[in-house]
Amino acid sequence: xxxVKFVGAGVAVIVLLLIFxxxxxxxxxxxxxxxxxxxxxxxxxDPGLHFKMPLTTSYRTFRTDILEVGPDxxxxxxxxxxxxxxxxxxxxxxxxxxxxxYVYANVPDYRTRLFTMAIDRLKSQMGKVNVSSVAEKRGELxxxxxxxxxxxxxxxxxxxxxxxxxxxxxTDSYRQAIGQAAAAKAGxxxxxxxxxxxxxxxxxxxxxxxxxxxxxxAKAKGEADATLYQAQAEAKAIELxxxxxxxxxxxxxxxxxxxxxxxxxxxxxxxxxKLPTAMYxxxxxxxxxxxxGAGAAKQ
Length: 299
Known about the structure:
Blueprint: H1 2-21, E1 24-27, E2 31-37, E3 40-45, E4 48-51, E5 57-63, E6 67-69, E7 75-78, E8 84-94, H2 100-106, H3 110-126, H4 138-152, E9 159-170, H5 172-258, H6 262-270, H7 292-298
Antiparallel strand pairs: 1-4, 2-3, 2-5, 6-8, 7-8, 8-9
Helix pairs in contact: 3-4
């Protein structure tokens, strides 16, 4: 009997402890909780310690920090030119505190719906571009899908903060075609480079030849100018010499006309003072005329 009383007391203590533990709950710093009373939303609890009525009051927590959702493997989609591409992406989102009650009451599966919405919007945008321009327009695709999700996810009560295209895988046949096209393009570029190089070499040779021709013409012109200048200088010297000679002759003529004895003076200047050693008949005597002029001098 005493054993039964002890067991009954123990059970009562356990029941009371469980009831006490059911009277409060805690909300983490990155969470809020929707508190319901008999299934009806009573309020949204902020982070911290809260009390509730056991058995009649319950709660569900929602994380308010930024979360992400994305596929485990690439999502298969098609471009506008019917080329397959497997795309991996991540959607970053959060549930605003003001929308927690709405999400609880209307879209408890908001994460699944957001993921499905992201796949649909991705396929819609990929179907607008050619496969050859996917890599080039990757940034534009990412930003366009992000804007669309930010607007469309409002119906879920979710705020999309970012969208990232993490990987794109093309089919083997397309990769092979791309490789062949790249090789062909490289060959064309190599030929074009060779042509450009040959053209540059020809232009360089032409420039060198023109330079050499210009140098030869300049040298010939210089030599011709030097010859011309030399000839002109020699002609000028001859002209000046002739003018000087003419002037000297003219001066001598003027002096002779004024004084006939100038001739005798020149003879005296040129005589070396020696008498001739032989005399021939009728030969002129080498003596100066000192008749009248000498007498006049003595007077």
